[in-house]
Amino acid sequence: MDGETREGALDAARLGAELGERATLVQFSSAFCQPCRATRRTLAEVARVVDGVAHVELDAEAHLALVRELGISRTPTVLVLDAAGRIVRRAAGQPRTVDVVAALGQAM
Description:
alpha+beta; 4 helices; Thioredoxin-like_sf; disordered N terminus
């Protein structure tokens, strides 16, 4: 997973879901995005097997203010948050499982 790190942090109130104890995978999706479905499966599986990791999927259209604030320009976009909700990695496009696991290693 490539990309720049953004300053600031996201919390449960802004995401509408609880953060993971150790890390959170935030996925921005859109309704008719085929790669978003595959990304959902990948991130859900990683969150299922890695203790303390949560997967939160947000509809980009329903969260336009957050999309603009974070500079999300395409779906899927995945943000990896550390335990405090700080963005430590971000990537656009469908990620590979190995890249998600490696990014989590940086977050935890």
